[in-house]
Amino acid sequence: MTILENLWFGNIAPADRKLKRGSEAKKLLEAAIANENIFTAELSTEGQRAYIEYSKLISRISEISECDAFGKGFRLGARLMLETLSEENTQMPTIIDGMG
User: Fold this and answer.
1) Whole-angstrom Cα distance, residue 72 to residue 66?
2) How far is Cα 89 from Cα 99, in angstroms, rounded to an integer?
3) Other Cβ atoms within 10 Å of 7 Cβ, number
4) Average pLDDT score over residue span 33-59
5) Do residues 14 and 67 touch, judged by C-beta distance below 8 A?
6) Looking at per-residue confidence, does 89 or 28 come out higher?
7) Among 25, 26, 1, 21, which residue's Cα sits nearest to residue 11?
8) Can you give the pLDDT at residue 94?
9) By C-alpha distance, which of 6, 9, 26 is closest to 17?
10) Which of 43, 78, 82, 91 has the fewest beta carbons closer than 10 A?
11) pTM
12) In this predicted structure, which of 10-24, 44-58, 62-76, 85-99 has the lowest mean pLDDT?
């Protein structure tokens, strides 16, 4: 199956990734969750609801930002490929032209 077919059928999901056990990111996430549990335990029911809503909004902002960065990176990679494959007028011969 090609990459495009895998993407079409949902076999490739760039946003779905797991953290490696013992990695810095995994440790930071675990610490954040532990602190969040302590913090939310001190809140009233109304405060907990507000915090959950706040967390959802921050998560959505993060998703939008990551999606944007992915798109920009993908487009940059595509532009690099296009430039690499295009024949450009230069004053110096290409390596292949100079070999003959």
Assistant:
1) 10
2) 18
3) 13
4) 96
5) no
6) 28
7) 1
8) 64
9) 26
10) 91
11) 0.65
12) 85-99
